[in-house]
Hints:
Blueprint: H1 2-32, H2 46-61, E1 71-80, E2 85-89, E3 92-93, E4 100-102, E5 109-119, H3 126-136, E6 140-144, H4 153-168, E7 176-180, E8 198-201, E9 212-217, E10 220-234, E11 239-249, H5 265-284, E12 289-296, H6 304-311, E13 320-326, E14 336-339, H7 345-358, E15 364-366, H8 375-379, E16 385-390, H9 412-425
Parallel strand pairs: 5-6, 6-7, 7-8, 11-12, 11-13, 13-16, 14-15
Antiparallel strand pairs: 1-10, 2-3, 2-9, 4-8, 5-9, 10-12, 14-16
Helix pairs in contact: 1-5, 2-5, 7-9
Amino acid sequence: xxxxxxxxSFLVLSTISYSQDLEYAKSVVKKLASPELxxxxxxxxxxxxxxxxxxxxYKRMGLAPLGKGYYQKFDISINTFPNEMSLKIxxxxxxxxxxYLVESSSPGIKGKFNIVKCNRKGIDSEEKFIGLINKAGNDxxxxxxxxxxxxxxxxNKKIDEYINFLKYSPxxxxxxxxxxxxxxxxxxxxxxxNVRPIVxxxxxIDLNSIKSLELIIxxxxxxxxxxxxxxxxxxxxxxxxxxxxxxxxxxHLGKMGKETYFPGANDNAxxxxxxxxxxxxxxxxxxxxxxxxxxxxAEEVGLLGAKKFTDNPLIKLDRIKFLINFDMxxxxxxxxxxxxxxxxxxxxxxxxKLNTENKLLPKIDIRGAACISDxxxxxxxxxxxxxxxxxxxxxxxxxIYDKYETLPFTEFVDYCALMIKFFNSI
Length: 426
């Protein structure tokens, strides 16, 4: 009976601990995805407010800085939209990020403009393409991009090249381009300003009725915007000069106009929550190797935070035993996927063995090398690394629907537990 009571007490304590871990992770994501942090972009210093929150958590947990402070600063170029943005079609005001997006490289513009319309078949030859340009003059060109033939790949490629020419070439007079699509709206950041605005619309509209549009875009291009990586570490007990490194990018897409922001709960507030959860664990359970925690900026503008760190490392890169880059850690119904899993097969096998033994995640999928996140810059410098993301659950990505309220955190606790077992087994 006494053994049963001890076991039940342990079970209750474990449940409380896991619950607290999950509540902490949820509180981090809720904070990072809130309107207060402006989408963690470069409008209204959303990135700096985020860095201040993360560095405050580092300090609270007792992480030591690797330099004079937690910040590793660097400059980026960025096009931002801090002020007015509106679009009217036939006097109907469309909803930003719901009905339309303004491509992030767009310059500022204000006015009412005529529209020349065309579908993909209308530019399936050079003759037709040149005819469209001449007809449009300095009007807006609307391309109905909804009917893409699946039969002729070469023709599709040619038409796509024509559309890109219309969007970006300085050789034509068109004031702007509208792409009408049925595809999901996803946004990106831009480090440059295009010659003309580009508007993507997916609201169901009678294209035949469209004669003109009213458009206001107020952009602000910042040639040198100072941002920062946030770096701290916990000293190892046995091998302090060897390092385990965990990374996650904290930046997201920021704002598109005064009112519209992109929360980025799964991408990548959840990854930061994983880094901070691991920092919290190791602040109370000293690791044998030193563990470095890097919250990276500017992933969304070309892995620039990772480039800054790998070009100017605060630790010797050849002393890193292993690095894991966490991105989109908030689901997991279908397990996780390991980029570089086939490159470091021994570590992948260790991870899957630990997962099977402890019955944690539904499955672990393997993937080869892919330069799609911050790990790539470390990997290219010879640092053994994984990039891991969860699978299943919500499909929101680079849109306004990636928010805290709908993020399931399905496997977060078991995922975190697996990472701790992995690091402790290396």
